[in-house]
Design brief:
It contains three helices and eleven strands. By secondary structure, the protein is α+β, with helices and mostly antiparallel strands.
Length: 204
């Protein structure tokens, strides 16, 4: 009789944490984001259309400081169970405001370890999915097994709502589909970094 005595190793694991946050003062953060858009020109990074902030003006509203503090705690406590990293700190962060037909093309966040996005105002079935993409050559091997399970999946897609947050390794390619609603899609994106690395907190 053949017996298998097996240890399963999860190597090069790609977790994506999806959270619904409650107790956040989204209205205060939204007013801050809209105020930045009214005062400063935006940048063109991954965004196609819409407004991507350059400047993050201090002082931040208390609600945003509290949000970032809680993200740091979450990453260094809960996420560290998988990453093994419990000393990450907030690096740079920026505001995205996408109007109708605006979207963010596929991109990653270099010079950081974990990256996240929090949706301040995001409502409607057609607001545009958040999509994380597999970036290896698996598609050439999977054939009819493609997307049968998480093991054979080639992308992860979900429609965000106000209060949703996603965290992922910074090397994961991700995009946000077109906003097809008549209201703004407002989010705050941010990076978590090694505290020994000098970061520029003014631009993302």
């Amino acid at each position: 009789m053949i017996e298998f005595k097996t240890i399963q190793n999860k190597l090069f694991y790609t977790p994506i944490w999806e959270s619904m946050l409650t107790g956040v003062d989204n209205q205060s953060i939204k007013q801050y984001a809209l105020g930045l858009r009214n005062k400063y020109p935006g940048a063109s990074i991954s965004n196609r259309g819409g407004w991507h902030s350059k400047e993050i003006i201090q002082p931040l509203p208390d609600a945003l400081n509290e949000l970032f503090s809680n993200f740091e705690g979450f990453v260094n406590d809960y996420c560290s169970q998988i990453t093994g990293l419990n000393n990450l700190m907030l690096g740079n962060f920026w505001v995205n405001i996408n109007q109708k037909y605006d979207y963010n093309r596929s991109h990653d966040h270099q010079n950081s370890i974990l990256s996240g996005v929090y949706y301040v105002d995001c409502e409607g079935d057609d607001v545009g999915n958040f999509v994380a993409e597999r970036d290896d050559a698996a598609e050439f091997f999977l054939g009819s097994y493609k997307n049968v399970s998480g093991f054979t999946g080639t992308s992860f897609s979900i429609t965000p709502l106000t209060g949703f947050a996603f965290l992922m390794p910074s090397w994961v390619l991700h995009s946000v589909e077109q906003n097809l609603t008549d209201r703004d899609r407002i989010s705050i994106a941010f990076n978590l970094v090694n505290p020994d690395v000098v970061v520029d907190n003014s631009y993302g």
